[in-house]
Amino acid sequence: MKFYCNIENFTADIAEVxxxxxxxxxxxxxxxxxxxxxxxxEDNSAAITLTFQGEKGRQTSEKTxxxxxxxxxxxxxxxxxxxxxxxxxxxxxxxxxxxxxYGSLTGVRPTKLFHDLTARGEDAFALFTRxxxxxxxxxxxxxxxxxxxxxxxxxxxxxxxxxxxxxxxTTRCSYCSFISAEIGRVKRxxxxxxxxxxxxxxxxxxxxxxxxxxxxxxxxxxxxxxxxSDEDFARVLGALKGLDAEFTVEAxxxxxxxxxKLDIMDKTGVTRISVNPQSLxxxxxxxxxxxxxxxxxxxxxxxxxxxxxDVNCDLIAGLPGEDEADFARSADxxxxxxxxxxxxxxxxLKKGSGLKLAGFDNSSGATAGMVDYARALAERRGYIPYxxxxxxxMSGNLENAGYCLPGKQxxxxxDVMEECANIIACGAGGISKLYLPEQNRLxxxxxxxxxxxxxxxxxxxxxxxxxxxxx
Length: 471
Known about the structure:
Layout: E1 2-5, H1 8-21, E2 33-40, E3 46-54, E4 57-65, H2 73-96, H3 110-119, H4 124-131, H5 136-148, E5 159-166, E6 168-169, E7 181-182, H6 190-211, E8 214-222, H7 230-238, E9 246-252, H8 259-267, E10 272-275, H9 282-287, H10 294-304, E11 310-317, H11 324-336, E12 341-346, H12 354-357, H13 366-380, E13 384-389, E14 400-404, H14 411-418, E15 422-426, E16 431-436, E17 441-446, H15 451-457, H16 459-468
Parallel strand pairs: 1-2, 5-8, 5-15, 6-7, 8-9, 9-10, 10-11, 11-12
Antiparallel strand pairs: 2-3, 3-4, 12-14, 13-14, 16-17
Helix pairs in contact: 1-2, 3-5, 6-16, 7-8, 11-13
């Protein structure tokens, strides 16, 4: 199928609606031609016409948006784009004889839209299910997440988070598309990387002081931060010591978690860590390229529980070779431990990942049953969903969802997913974000992804960051 839209900056987002039904629809020959014409008038009204030319002839459908007053032109653009996506969704649903759990929504953050509609006094649940074609089950999930964020989601520009990226892992997982490198291959860069990273952290602390921000959260991620040597790990965390905030380290790989690393985290004030099995099936763990076993995870988890950290565990639904029974065993095993948080990811075939390059097909309908099983299990165990997000090329067009025991929400996860906080990012590939609440949007400044370019930029990165935050 060929797709044409007369507004270029709408094309990519609307094309995702088509791909959600048939992932390769826009890459394969044949299938007809789909034309979308959007005419926006000066009085804020718009006429949207969808025309499909296929083997059975020509089909046309239209939608008119009446004139409305918008103080923000960005909101007018969003309104027109949403209407166009619904028109395309309705055509594709009829054309394919199928519906999607999130209807016409293609964005990463459905909760952000739900919050925005609610803030304007609109019935977000009704709009999602009626106008945007979201299933009632998924609309309830979104609504539950938004409720769990009440009192925690920031609405002002007076706070900030610090993100620290350590893009090294012991091995590369087959589903990963991050810039993370296998640490054994980049050892020569690590001393200089740690040196510059510490200077960036010190500069981030200065920005917070000079701007008068309240620090809400610190998040050290990657990669696997605990893949560093004890000496380098202690130096990075030492630069963050003494900050009065939620303090997360994504330890992640069970094979990198040991008493010495946990001691370092405890002494530097870490409050929250991740110990991630992804699966409790040893065959699956090996297949996705991780160098640990289910027993290694249980050992690391038991060791971490001797410290005062809140603990998160990640699971992935839809991994290669797993059926619903395999996933259920992993979910049962993890939830039985009662970690403070459990994040249930849906496998996404990301560009550059080993699974994508190998041609793995993640279109199995079993993934939806896995996600539903985890959600029901979480509820029975007393967990609440408190953040969620979606990605392109996810199995079943589903979601990633974070569950927590009451009172154990991660502030950083909420800030990132709801795009409601300033974030000062340190490290290669880190993206600093300036929150503009009056416009309900972010401005972004990215550090270079490549280690060599990041190190070459050096102090210029710090100067650019200070200017970005108005200093």
